[in-house]
Amino acid sequence: MRFTKMHGIGNDYIYVDGFVEKLADPPSLARQISDRHFGVGGDGLILILPSEKADVKMRMFNADGSEAEMCGNGVRCVAKYAYEHGLSKANPMKIETGAGVLSLALHTEAGKVQQVTVNMGQPRLALEQIPADREKLSPGPDEHQYRLHPAGSDEALLATLVSMGNPHFVTYVPNAAAVDLSRLGPTIERNAAFPRRINVHFVQVIGPGEVKMRTWERGSGITLACGTGACAVAVAGVLTHRTDRKILAHLPGGDLTLEWRESDNNVYMTGPATEVFSGQWNG
């Protein structure tokens, strides 16, 4: 099976061209090929497939084999692969995902995609849309804020819950680098309040237009970046009056520009997509 390794600011996946390759068991393959010692290594597996309602379709599997609705960094790489490998020359490009059909504007140079702006759609804020169990959360000081006392934490965390087609827990801290992410991340991800588990983000505000963030990603653990998570952070910052509608987010793997536009209520994410290498998987 041929594959291509790609990443969006360090959020790396193994991509398989489903126009050519046929996979019988993607969850099992995701677990094997994502292993960083015995496989290719990555945060998961992404399939690029034909679509009846868009230019291409994306299916994403985390490193543990679970299928997720969407990946913001991954969808930029899907657009780059599709454009540069001749699957579609549409610009903007429509990509079908588990969170719906997204529109992506490709910023090209000499025939190569350098940056991609993704219309990530409207955030979903109702608890049933996250989803989250109201009975297992305590209300916070404002609407869309909730308190959770995760195992291993000395105190309750105040968080904003946002769905960008997948669930996100956004909490603000004085110093994101000081957070024990490997301890707190999995306990929040698998807390009983979140029936489908949840992505966890610790955010440090630098100024009204700038933040730093670190992520524990559902099904993959600590990752260098999370595109949908950065979008959720942009929304949470506006809802809690911490940041402007347009921000620069610094993630461990690089930077993303996010804008939650008042004109259409959609979140727009701009960032790079990088192809690393291609190979043959014989596992």
Question: Topology of this structure?
Answer:
Blueprint: E1 2-8, E2 11-17, H1 26-34, E3 44-49, E4 56-62, E5 67-68, H2 72-84, E6 93-97, E7 100-109, E8 112-119, E9 138-139, E10 145-148, E11 157-163, E12 167-172, H3 181-189, E13 199-207, E14 210-217, E15 221-223, H4 227-239, E16 246-251, E17 254-260, E18 267-272, E19 274-280
Parallel strand pairs: 2-3, 4-6, 12-13, 14-16
Antiparallel strand pairs: 1-2, 1-19, 3-4, 4-5, 6-7, 7-8, 8-18, 9-10, 10-11, 11-12, 13-14, 14-15, 16-17, 17-18
Brief summary of the model shown:
The chain is built from 4 helices and 19 strands.
The domain tally reads 2
CATH class call of the largest domain:
Alpha Beta
Instruction: Extract low-pLDDT stretches.
Output: none
Can you tell me the CATH architecture of the largest domain? Answer: Roll
Straight-line N-to-C gap: 9 Å
In CATH, the homologous superfamily of the largest domain goes by the name Diaminopimelate Epimerase, Chain A, domain 1
Order of helices and strands: EEHEEEHEEEEEEEHEEEHEEEE
Structural class determined from secondary elements = alpha+beta
* CATH level-3 fold name of the largest domain: Diaminopimelate Epimerase, Chain A, domain 1
**Mean of all residue-level pLDDT scores:** 96
**Count of helical regions:** 4
Q: Tell me about the biggest sheet?
A: 19 strands, mixed
Measured as a percent range, the helix fraction is 10-25%
Radius of gyration: 18 Å
